[in-house]
Fold these 2 entries.
Entry 1:
Amino acid sequence: MAAKLTIDVLSLFPDMVEAPLGGSILGKARDRGLLEIRCHNIRDWTTDKHRKTDDYLCGGGRACC
């Protein structure tokens, strides 16, 4: 049997990434055990109570100073 390829996807919307994979050629590879795709929610690693993932503003104005 061929080696299994594992792909980790980091996303704010892992369900949206996961949905199209079932009906494509990637879905067939998953069914045959050739591919593993693991979708992770970036918010799982946040540290504040609002699970904020945005960085501070930059690009001019007083927000950067």
Note: DSSP finds two helices and two strands in the chain.
Entry 2:
Amino acid sequence: MASWISMNAACAQLGVRPQTVYAYVSRGKIEVMPDPADTRRSLYRAEDVAGLAKRKEAGRKHETLAANTLFGAEPSIPTALTAFFRGRPYYRGQDAVALAETATLEDVARLLWDAQQAVDFTPGAGPGPRRAAPAGRLQAFTALAGLAATGHSTRGRLTRVLYSESQALVGQLAASFGAAPGSAPLHLRFAQGWKQSPQVAELLRTAMVLLVDHELTSSAFAARITASTGASLPACLLSGLTTLSGPLHGDASGRVQALFADVERQGAEQVLEQHLSAGLPFAGFGHPIYADGDPRAAALLARFEPPEAIARFIAQVTRLTGLQPNIDVALAALVAQHRLPEDAAFSLFATARSIGLLAHSLEQLGVAQVIRPRGRYVGVVPQLAPATPRSP
């Protein structure tokens, strides 16, 4: 039988603050459960804490700890949204892969936002000025930038008002990316806008649910920083989405699509030889969090057959490198199989992740402090003039 200890005992054994324990929990290093005697408190698996304490490096310099706190080794921002347990992502304690079997984006938004009322992503449902948004990435970002420039601060506003504005923002973003108008769930509106069948709509639903959040990513951190300043919700979302748009983050499926295009043009063997002989990485294979493979990719790829050449290429790369395909490969394969619009992978990713970014922004509002890390100067030391002594 597993034994469990309190937060105070875990902190004492590890020699850390509660924030660090929360970080260990969010990364799946310490398992947590509600305290049966007091559901407001949590208990932590003693074996996990003991294992971390044993491996914990003694005598780290203060400057190394400060740098690691910012760059990912021990982030100090507690979150109740997404965590990893035994190699799988969980949204507020619920298995994201299992949710993707039946849940809609509206269901997951209500879960992540901790909303009491049903969620409706119909454009224009929230307060403030609204206008019809044209399709396309440029139009989506331009429209959001306009709202960010004129939006109201999140401070001093009721939660239900912020929920309404969040719904409207997601709805407008989806419309910009080509979702059909109406009040149907977003996956059906995307399928209608892209002229796809109900079967493809189900695949879009699964993909977007799997993409809603992924713990403290760079885009989530950017949105939280913006939220901590009291900026408007459109500004928080725009900050997160511009970070998401990088090819090493939410637009990584674009690199995979380019790889698949090379496979179609040159043949799988030629592409494999080029990459392996030059030691080039294969875009979309492997993931730093999932050593045994990205469960989101496995869940999505299990629901459709990619084009034969792409499926064969994925199998060959996996066999030769040992790396499993991640969610970016699954998205690119989905686009190829069903001939979705060229920017569909990013459209799905950005729309789905906007829910998570807004959830992080709303959660950050509960912390009355601006996120302001300090820099550790490593440049040229200035030649300072001696201090002038004060007159008596």
Note: Residues 124 and 168 are 5 Å apart (CA to CA).
